[in-house]
């Protein structure tokens, strides 16, 4: 078992002890991978909330490539 799996087991164990009825839902939900990707997308999108309209438009239309722009920042 790797560290990620152990961490998840720790979270799940505590969560299910507190909410035992959720166990079956977790076991039977058909698409945790899709939901996890949606959550990653939602978290990434939170950054966009702070940007003004013009900057959002530039990203949306491809005038600005956000990852490439970030790469130009000094570390």
Topology:
Blueprint: H1 3-18, H2 22-28, H3 32-45, H4 53-60, H5 66-71
Which tags fit this structure?
75 residues; elongated; 5 helices; mainly alpha
Walk me through what this model shows.
The chain is mainly α and about 80 residues long. The protein has one domain. About 70% of the residues lie in helices and about 0% in strands. It contains five helices and no strands. It has helices spanning about 5-20, 20-30, 30-45, 55-60, 65-70. The longest helix is centred in the first third of the chain and has 16 residues, at about 5-20. The two termini are about 35 Å apart. The model has no long low-confidence stretch (mean pLDDT about 95).
Give the number of DSSP strands.
0
Radius of gyration over alpha carbons?
19 Å
Mean pLDDT: 96
Helical proportion, percent range: 55-70%
Q: Which descriptor suits the 3D outline?
A: elongated
Return residue spans where pLDDT drops below 50 for at least 5 consecutive residues.
none
What is the first-to-last residue Cα distance?
34 Å
The number of helical elements comes to 5
Determine the structural class based on helices, strands and strand pairing.
mainly alpha
Order of SSEs: HHHHH
Describe the largest sheet: none
